[in-house]
Amino acid sequence: VQLQASGGGLVQSGGSLSVSCAASGRTGSAYDMGWFRHCPGREREFVAAISWHGGSTNYADFVKGRFTISRDYAKNAVYLQMNSLKPEDTAVYYCAAKYGGSWLYWGQGTLVTVSS
After folding, report:
1. Contact call for residues 92 and 3 (beta carbons, < 8 A)
2. CB-CB contact of 93 with 109 (8 Å)
3. Residue 26 in 3-state DSSP?
4. What are the pLDDT digits (tens) for 94-111?
């Protein structure tokens, strides 16, 4: 499975941005999909995940109520809608696919910069 993230950019504090992740290769829908981020000076951290059937989502506490993860099976894509962005949300955002209980496949990341 190959994952390609896109949609990052510069946004002002309080603004919104959506990042996307397109999957190719073995793109059977039986993968949980997730987003992680790597903030400057910090280790990579979990942001959100959506189950393979789309019926279950999970969010890190620091994004609950602000970010929404979704997926489009027809397009083999997963999205992260980010609202009420804060400067501390500045990070490289990575999409990932879970297989066999592990986040096995990773995209290259897309940079989101939130200015104060």
Report:
1. no
2. yes
3. coil
4. 999 998 889 999 999 999
Separation of first and last alpha carbons in the chain: 37
Going along 1-116, which residue ranges are E strands? 2-6, 9-12, 17-24, 32-38, 45-50, 57-59, 67-72, 77-82, 91-99, 102-106, 110-115
Q: What count of other Cβ atoms lies within 10 Å of the Cβ of residue 57?
A: 15
| pLDDT grade for 54, boundaries at 50, 70 and 90 | confident
* Best CA proximity match to 96, nearest among 47, 28, 57, 43: 47
Starting at the edge strand found earlier in the chain, the sheet holding 17-24 runs 2-6, 17-24, 77-82, 67-72
